Structure formats: C-alpha cells, structure tokens
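Retro notes (design track)

What went well: tokenization of the new backbones is finally stable.
What didn't: we kept losing track of which sequence belonged to which structure.
Fix going forward: every design gets posted as structure first, then sequence, in one message. First example under the new rule, 465 residues:
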C-alpha cells in the first residue's frame, strides 16, 4: 500500500526548533507576510494537536477526551495511533497493544475497555457485566480499523514494526473472524451491528426505524452523564438512550451470546460503515499475512473477501443512489444517505454500473454542505447540523472517505474533503465533530482523534503528496 503519508522530518525540525514559545525567526525567510501568518498558525495547531494527544494519554492508552469519555474506546484509539505515529512510532504501537489487552476469548475487540469504574461515565462496567475478557469491557465491538492502522504503522518502519506485528497478527485475525461469523446473518454477507454503539455512529438516522421497533419498557431507571459534559442538543435523545440501555440489558441477559444476539436480538442492521471498514481491513490484513509468510491466513481472509460484492449488492439502494444501512429484521433500507456510503472506495469496491450515480450523490451533498462531509444528507428532513451523527462532519470519516476517493482517482473531491477538515479545525479547534453548515465545533473539546487526524492528514505541514 505504502500510502500512509508522513510529516517530513523538516516539518518536525521546525516544530522542535521553535520549542514551546512562538519564536518565529526560523521561518522569517518566508517573503509573504500572509504566508508567514498561515505557516505560523499551522505550526501552532501542530503543537496544540500534539499537546492534546499527550494530555489525553492515560498510561499506554489514550482517552478520547477527558470528562465525557474516561476510558479506552476502540476506533478512537486506533485513529489516535496514527497521530502518535507522526512523532512517536513506538507509542503508536503501544496504543494498539493496550486495546487488545481487552480482547475477548471469542475474538471480539470490545468497543470500550474500562479497566476502572469512573462515575463520570454511564453506562460503566457494572451495567454491561461483560465477562468475555480478563479486563472489564463493554459487550459489543466497534468499526474495525485496527488492521488498516497496523499496516500503516508497519509500513512507516518495518524494522520497528516487525515484532509488534508478529504479536498482534493472530489477535487481528481472531477479531476479523469474530465479525465474519458472529455478525453475519446466515445467507448474508453484509456485516450487522446489533447495537447503534457498535457502528460508532450512535444516533445516525440509519438506525431510526430499527430502534423504533425496540420496546424500552421495563428498563431500570438511570442517570445520563454525557449531557452533564456536553449540550444535550448535540447528543442523542432520551428516547434513543432508553433503547440503547434496553439493548445492553438484552445482551447482558443472554450472557453476551453474540451469535444469539445477532440472530434473535431486537436490533440487527447491516451497516455500510462497518462492512466497508472491515472489507478494507481484510485487504490490509491479507497484505500483512503475506509479509509474515502466513499463506494459510491469507487464504482464510480471501474467503471473507470473496463475499464483498454480495455484501455491497445488498447495501446498494438504487433509489438513494448510494449504499445504505438495511434493517435485517424487516429488510428495509435507510431513508437517507450517510457519509459512510462513500467508504465503498476505501473498501476497494468500485462497481462501474453504480459509480456515476454514487458520484452524483456525493457531488450533490458536497454542494449543499460548505464544510464536508456531513454525516447525514443535509437535504433530508432528519438532518440536524449539530446533533452528533445526524449531520455533523467528523474528521475520521473524512480521512477514510478521502483516502478511498484519492485511491480511485477522485483527487479533487478527496482534496475538497481534506481542505474542509483543515478549515473546520483552523476555524474552531479540535472538537469532536463540526457543524457542516458553519464549521463550528460541537461535542467534546480537545478531542484526541481530531488532533490525530490533523497531525497525520489535515495539517498543511503533513506531506500527503
Ligand atoms: C457514548 O457513550 O456516547 C459512546 O458513543 C458510546 O460508545
């Protein structure tokens, strides 16, 4: 692949030379005053991003942000590793290793590794009662970006990465195998999520219809903590939270029997986000298998990839002109377009008979959002520009989408998304997500994955040529 671009050493020389105080003599040779200002601003943001990663570190893992999210979250942590890799490659590998300390005996890498009980977060380990691993964790998973991140880290420096890769490879295989067996309904190929939290896109309209069929009657009374940290208008509603809790209660009652939950549980939706991310991760894991000379594993991964087209066919919605989530209990597709629809390229999936339509949909959405990529179609009645996954733009999805688009030759769209990510951060700082209409920051501040995406991709000082 070799496409994980890195900051040039020269950039970091500048950054380290200027030290903690803004002394600009090192860049005074730049002739235009405006270039000096913008170079100074970029380097200042580089420094802030680096500080955010360091300040959110908690031993060998990193909190998404202090207060709102006091534990290790799965895909947050993996994106954060890409940020660390820009200045401390060993630390990046440690982030991956600590995530897998919470891996379940059945292969699942959990969406949260708790390690401790922090009353500032709900629902904590005593609510989940998940005992699949030696560490307390949640009972579901999250989008499996880890293998793709591991490939990036390895390719940055194979000599540093070899030993880490050898240790992590069987763990990654076990996790992918878990998805391909536990989260596929017999006869299907698209990957199901059995809790909106598993998708990472908690309150996306993609789940509205399926969630409406979850009856929350009888859940124990509870107090939300998230709305004590962040404006409730930027978070899921209470009706959604009740159902999130009901699904946790259901899983707990089954003893976290994942096969049963997928087959029989109250919520199972085929998710283009997880499906495409896993498809990419499978390809990356296969490349890593070949690096390690593990032909048998590579062949097993091929059997998973064999079903890719079938999965994409199931998720394609001609009426929307895009890939869409689909409720596995009712077979109904979502009613609107989410940003993850465009991860098909990232997945390595380009279907000529659909591409013109998909590109047309993307163009329409880019034209309606001054700051791409809105997590949900701004022209849809359920769009809400500041409410979490119902509209806001997220740096991590932008990174994945742009990467795939660039790989398939849609360079202008990829650059547009990267440029918008940069402008949102320059305008508002390192927020959890951004209003795609105004670029205003929303959700948690000093957010680790936004800082990481700045460092590895969005900063003008990062070489992505
Ligand atoms: C939360 O608590 O809001 C998280 O998104 C769950 O993963």
């Amino acid at each position: 692949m070799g496409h994980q671009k890195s900051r040039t050493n020269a950039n970091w020389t500048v950054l380290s030379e200027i030290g903690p105080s803004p002394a600009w003599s090192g860049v005074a040779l730049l002739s235009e005053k405006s270039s000096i200002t913008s170079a100074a601003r970029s380097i200042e943001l580089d420094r802030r991003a680096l500080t955010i990663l360091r300040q959110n570190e908690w031993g060998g893992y990193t909190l998404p942000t202090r207060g709102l999210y006091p534990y290790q979250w799965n895909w947050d942590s993996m994106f954060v590793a890409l940020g660390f890799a820009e200045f401390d490659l060993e630390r990046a590998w440690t982030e991956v290793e600590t995530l897998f300390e919470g891996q379940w005996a059945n292969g699942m890498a959990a969406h949260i590794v708790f390690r401790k009980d922090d009353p500032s977060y709900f629902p904590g380990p005593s609510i989940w009662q998940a005992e699949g691993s030696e560490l307390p964790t949640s009972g579901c998973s999250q989008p499996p970006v880890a293998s793709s991140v591991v490939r990036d880290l390895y390719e940055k420096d194979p000599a540093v990465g070899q030993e880490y890769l050898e240790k992590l490879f069987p763990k990654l295989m076990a996790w992918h195998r878990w998805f391909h067996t536990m989260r596929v309904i017999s006869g299907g190929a698209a990957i199901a999520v059995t809790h909106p939290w598993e998708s990472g896109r908690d309150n996306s309209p993609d789940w509205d219809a399926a969630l409406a069929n979850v009856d929350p009657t009888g859940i124990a009374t509870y107090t939300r903590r998230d709305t004590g940290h962040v404006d409730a208008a930027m978070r899921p509603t209470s009706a959604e939270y009740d159902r999130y809790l009901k699904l946790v209660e259901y899983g707990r009652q089954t003893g976290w029997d994942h096969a049963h939950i997928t087959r029989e549980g109250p919520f199972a939706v085929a998710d283009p986000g997880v499906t495409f991310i896993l498809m990419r991760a499978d390809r990356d894991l296969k490349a890593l298998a070949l690096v390690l000379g593990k032909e048998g594993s590579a062949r097993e991964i091929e059997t998973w990839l064999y079903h890719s087209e079938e999965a994409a066919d199931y998720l394609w919605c001609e009426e929307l002109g895009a890939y869409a989530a689909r409720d596995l209990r009712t077979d109904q597709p979502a009613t609107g377009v989410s940003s993850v629809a465009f991860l098909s390229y990232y997945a390595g999936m380009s279907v000529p008979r659909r591409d013109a339509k998909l590109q047309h949909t993307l163009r329409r959405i880019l034209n309606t959002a001054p700051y791409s990529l809105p997590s949900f179609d701004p022209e849809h009645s359920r769009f809400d520009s500041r409410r979490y996954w119902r509209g806001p733009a997220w740096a991590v999805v932008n990174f994945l989408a742009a990467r795939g688009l660039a790989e398939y030759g849609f360079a202008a769209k990829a650059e547009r998304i990267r440029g918008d990510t940069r402008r949102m951060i320059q305008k508002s700082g390192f927020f959890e997500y951004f209003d795609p209409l105004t670029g205003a920051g929303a959700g948690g501040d000093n957010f680790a994955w936004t800082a990481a995406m700045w460092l590895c991709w969005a900063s003008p000082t990062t070489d992505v040529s």
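Added context from the reviewer: DSSP finds 19 helices and eleven strands in the chain.
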